[in-house]
Amino acid sequence: MFFERPQSGELAVLVHLDFSQIDDPDDPREFEELALSAGADPVAFVTGQRAKPDPRYFIGGGKLEEIRDIVSTHNAELVIFNHALSPSQERNVEAALKCRVLDRTGLILDIFAQRARTHEGKLQVELAQLEHMSTRLIRGWTHLERQKGGIGLRGPGETQLETDRRLLRARIKAIQARLDKVRRQRQQGRRSRQRNSIPTVSFVGYTNAGKSTLFNVLTDSDVYAKDQLFATLDPTMRRIELRDVGACILADTVGFISHLPHRLVEAFRATLEEASNSDLLLHVIDCADDERERNIIEVHSVLEEIGAADLPQLRVYNKIDLLSDFQPRIDRNEEGRPVAVWLSARDGVGLEYFHEALSEILGEDVVDGCVTLSPTDAKLRAQLYQQQAVVSEEYAEDGGSELHLRIPKPDLMRILSYIGIDWSDLRWSGDPKALNN
Q1: In angstroms, rounded to a whole number, what is the distance separating the alpha carbons of residues 30 and 17?
Q2: Beta carbons of 286 and 319 less than 8 angstroms apart
Q3: Among 269, 275, 262, 268, which Cα is nearest to 309's?
Q4: Are strands 200-205 and 246-252 parallel, antiparallel or unpaired?
Q5: Annotation-wise, does 216 bind a ligand?
Q6: How far apart are CA 12 and CA 40, in angstroms?
């Protein structure tokens, strides 16, 4: 955008090194899936081991020659590293290989740029790209001479590099202002849902765990879902009706990945706040993935970063169709509370268990019982009917009535507060304490 670089191509050489000093290395298989998801056509996968990265080229001289030969043999136009390179390392390797070099962060940014469909998503991607690019501007102007003194050359002015930095800072500031507006709009929407006592449930999980497929099945939507990393980037929200709960908002969010670049988390904070302000997190897990436990840890790491690690969670083990002779089920803790559901979103198997678990968790404070109202309680009766809380009604000889209610307790308390009636003033048929599920 701001500087001349070799034109990118689809033929790519992938480079992955194992370092003895790193306890949690990136998965090379996941790296290859990332490259394929970005549209690259890998012609070679170069691996190696080092004690620590080389400060100049990240890789050693011998490995650099090996990659140069591969690039020359296959006419590759792109070399992708499964690591974070410093700007100087990226510049030095590009100069040595005479082709474009991309690190892991740049690769993920490219995928995000392809997936963004909404205006907000495009803004967030551009912000992350500009912040990443701001550290790499200097390479673009090495073909220009430095400012120098002399007759007619002295005086005020700025180099092209300084101009680009100034323009880039201005653009970043403008995008941040627009995303702040989006954040305020989301907060307003959340306050509105809270006033109406509508719970929000957010899907979280490792990328390609099947969140969007499950979301589409539950909400009858057509959110883009495909067997590739980061198929979903833009958040989508839909309203559904649950038994014993009523209206509920489901939110589909961007998938997580190991070592998700911090600037991506910052850029997508407006989107991720939707998860951190949810009443319940649905942690969707690919139960057939060999790295299942590692992926769960990575998701928890990102949740901690956005302040959502302590929210209630229901684990949803998806893709049981890939396991042999595995039946859907609900796992419960010692108290009988649902903690996990096993299902297949693709085949629609086990969805009834999912609805059962979700209704149990969100409907824990549902009031189910009979209350006697006098003729003077007409306003309360009208509000209960408006809230669709009345299951049945029987009339008494004195003009009063007995209503069988089923309603979330927060909704009932809100109605009582609006009418100006205390909970203790209600005449229940039975012990009110036994009415809470």
Answers
A1: 14
A2: yes
A3: 275
A4: parallel
A5: no
A6: 6
Q: Each residue's pLDDT tens digit in the chain (437 positions)?
A: 333 434 444 788 999 888 776 655 667 887 888 888 888 888 899 888 888 888 898 888 899 999 999 999 998 888 999 888 888 888 899 889 888 888 888 888 887 777 776 677 777 778 877 877 776 665 554 444 444 544 544 445 456 667 777 787 888 888 888 877 877 877 776 666 555 557 788 888 887 888 888 888 888 766 555 544 554 555 677 888 776 667 788 888 777 776 666 666 666 665 666 677 788 889 999 998 888 888 898 888 888 877 788 888 999 999 999 988 889 999 998 888 899 999 998 898 999 999 888 888 887 667 778 888 888 888 888 888 887 788 888 888 777 888 888 777 767 777 888 888 887 788 888 654 444 44
To the question of whether residue 209 is assigned a binding role by annotation, the answer is yes
Cβ burial of 151 (10 Å; 0-12, 13-18, 19+) is exposed
Binding site annotation covers 344? yes
CA end-to-end span of the chain: 59
The rounded radius of gyration (Å) of the Cα atoms in the chain is 28
Tell me: is residue 211 an annotated ligand-binding position.
yes
Which among 102, 115, 130 is positioned nearest to 263, based on CA atoms? 130
Q: Is 267 annotated as a binding residue?
A: no
Tokens of 232: 């979903």
Give dist(CA 301, CA 377) in Å, integer: 52
202 annotated as ligand-binding: no
- Tell whether 319 is in a known binding site: yes
- CA–CA gap between residue 79 and residue 174 (Å, rounded): 33
Q: Is 252 annotated as a binding residue?
A: yes
